[in-house]
Amino acid sequence: MARKHHEIQFLTGNLWTNVLRFAIPVALTSILEQLSSLIDTVMIGRLMGPEGTIGMAAVGANTQITSLIIVLFVGISLGTNVTVASALGAGDHEAASRAAHTSILMALAGLAVIVLGELVAQPVLVLLQVPPETLPDAVLFLRVFLLGMPSILLYNFEAAILRADGDARLPMQALGLSAVLNVVLDLLFIGVFGWGVVGSAIATDLCYTAIAVLLFVRLLHLDSPVRIDPHRLCVDRKSLRTIVQIGLPAGIQSAVFSIANIVIQGAINSLGTEVMAASSAGMNIEFVCYSLLNSFSQACTTFVGQNRGARNYGRCRKTMGVCLGEGAIAAALLIAFAVFLGRQVLGLINPDSAVVQYGYMRLCTIFPAYAFSMVYEAISGYLRGFGMSTPPALTTMIVICGLRFFWIAVVFPASHTFQTIMNIYPISLGINCACIIVLLLVLHPTETLVKKDTRAA
Q: Which residue windows are transmembrane per the record (predicted)?
């Protein structure tokens, strides 16, 4: 299969259009990835009859757990993105190839996740105070879902390789196919066979396996330095070290972020099944919309990574400005969406009036804080593109996680309401945004590298 000329120009061309060409497919990819969870939630709510709300609560109780596991490895895959992009920008095709082959094998870590997850599934859910009527379905869903982890990780590493090489469309198209397949399988497993939440988890596993195989076949026939040759599949220590040094801090940042949200989920669970179902519905909408903002962070990382490799530091700075500008427009649209259409969308997921009321409360509290998220995600992506992954990761972990742990431990017991829990989101995101801006001003990555290059010359 011959490779077509890149539509995305990392090193030349108009940044506004090229960033959009990259960010929109990445956003749609993330949205389609989250659509799998949304489809599961809708199908369970609609097809399980009177047990639909309990089924939704069971899936919602697992959302933060599955997110924690996935974001850890997706964060590491950002190391693949930066490593491959920088090598391609510098014209070092051999280094790009070694990093790509190493990344494919890193997906085998999913096997360890399966074993660990099967052992701790029930104790973790009990620790999170999942109500007794919800616990059996929640445990079953988690255990079956985790069987698909190798496929989920392989897909994300494959997508990182393709995006670094300029192909942001194929991962999106693969997930589009996955979403359609997920609907069909959910209708079959839940609606026809009556397998409930287990059927939903099986459908998700099968869909990820299908698209992981699809992307692997594409990489085998790619006309590019990152084409995968099965005979060359081995772990290159230098590539692995670089990928982990860049990606692990980002992965740990996301994982600890999820741990903080798991603590919050435990507090939400203590408020009952209706609040759990409402929060689950709201989170699915948030994940879909947040993907649009996060795509500009990923675009910033990839564009900066390639231009850093080519030592085009002026274009690196312009990339951050463009990502902030386009991200601001996206954030404004998302806030308007939550305010004016939030109730209607929640009603489509679950018509229960209490679920809609609590879900809308969540949306109206969290969506305005997306303005803060947009800024710190774009700046973090900019720093990661330079290989500076640890400083923004540490900052985010200390600020956001510290504040959320404190809030649930001290503030929530004094005011035991859903709104109290929700208030910590804008507070923590706003403070973290300010800290990341200060971090950027302190690090000055382009000035640091220019001085380094001057001394080397």
A: 65-91, 103-128, 140-162, 174-195, 201-220, 321-340, 360-379, 391-412, 424-443
